[in-house]
Amino acid sequence: MKKEKVKILGIESSCDETAVSIVEVSSSDKGKILSNIVFSQIDQHSPFGGVVPEIASRSHVESLSPLIDQALNDATLKIQDIDGVAATSGPGLIGGLIVGLTTAKGIAVGLDIPLIGVNHLEGHALTPILTNDIYPPYILLLVSGGHTQLIMVKDIGQYIQIGTTIDDAAGEAFDKAAKFLDIGYPGGPALEKIAKKGNNKKYKFPRPLQNSNDCNFSFSGLKTSLIREAKNIEPIDEKTISDLAASYQQAIIDCIKIKSEKAINKMLAQNNTSEIKYFVASGGVASNKAIRDNLTLLAQKHKMRFIAPPMKFCTDNAAMIAWVGGLRLLRGQSDELDTPARARWPLEEMKIHEVLNG
Ligand code: KG4
Ligand code: ZN
Question: What is the separation, in whole angstroms, between the first and last Cα of the chain?
Fold first, then answer.
């Protein structure tokens, strides 16, 4: 008999957060988060100014079992109450992915329940349905540490890529600049904080690809021009650093705005305009308040609503993994025990129908 509701244990270990969550997903595509734990490894990586893969894998091994116990405890459930186990199987750091996926496989075998290997990007892409009670179609800006993409989410499992970065991701642009300016780790929140005190018009940074007709991004030149500009300034005091950070953040925001608007115009021209009601941002960088404020105005201009998940569901978490696992399980989809961990797994390889270029 087909179940109306399933309780899914989700595991996320693709980068520097070990996260476990239990979500109850219903066949009407509604979800209830029963527990949600994120253990951040920031303290272990910050002395190195970035994520060290070996440290990350070891830390996932150490934390995962106690976090699973805690997630069950928080949800007042026993492991036998779980209907399926979902783990991020890619993309991400391969060591961490193997730790999470292998743990999930052990639970699936031990309890004889289905295993669902989840694409991390699909987790970010479908989070707003769980947290903001909206439903596709929507235009999605997926901005994280490893990805920057504009995607038309036509339905659950139907994604059309509208644009992507041709080099660095937006989160990388934040992280590398913060490392160069030596303002703290992780870079995104650190740079956002310092930028608040600065003048965003003080330095002129480029807006790469702004005149190209496509919806693609490029951030690596922007980082190079920051380094070049900063090297010309002696000495660099605190005020200069805030002005550099503010001007640099503004350049990233402008690039995001310009390409998001191109994507909106393209999608509205191709679709029934009244169908697309939402412009959605998801992924770690979408927790940036200045980016949210700018995108809110952009969406309003096009008579759309701007939606972004609450901050803690923008950055990496396991609720989004359990959620996608539940949606897939209720559609009769699960994975074999030999499903692999994949360092690279573009969302286009899910069920994307077509990739739009130009
Ligand atoms: O989605 P996420 O937690 O992990 C990945 O899947 O990559 O995103 C992490 C990225 C990092 O690059 C981090 O610096 C960035 O999101 N980030 C931010 C902010 N908070 C996190 N970037 C800009 N402003 C923020 N407030
Ligand atoms: Zn992520």
Answer: 47
Confidence of residue 63 (pLDDT cuts 50, 70, 90): very high
What pTM was computed for the model?
Answer: 0.93
Give the closest ligand to the alpha carbon of residue 285: 1
Q: Which of 241, 165, 176, 177 has the alpha carbon at shortest distance from 208?
A: 165
Q: Which ligand is nearest to the CA of 143?
A: 1
> In which residue are the tokens 């030999």 written?
338
- Output DSSP code: residue 29: S
Q: Whose CA is nearest to atom 10 of ligand 1?
A: 145
Residues contacting ligand 1 via CB (< 6 Å): 15, 144-146, 171, 174-175, 186-189, 192, 283-285, 287-288, 315-316
Domains and CATH numbers, the chain: 5-126+313-346 (3.30.420.40), 136-310 (3.30.420.40)
How confident is residue 1, by pLDDT bands cut at 50, 70 and 90? low
Q: What is the mean pLDDT of residues 61-86?
A: 98
Nearest to 141 by CA among 341, 319, 304, 15: 304
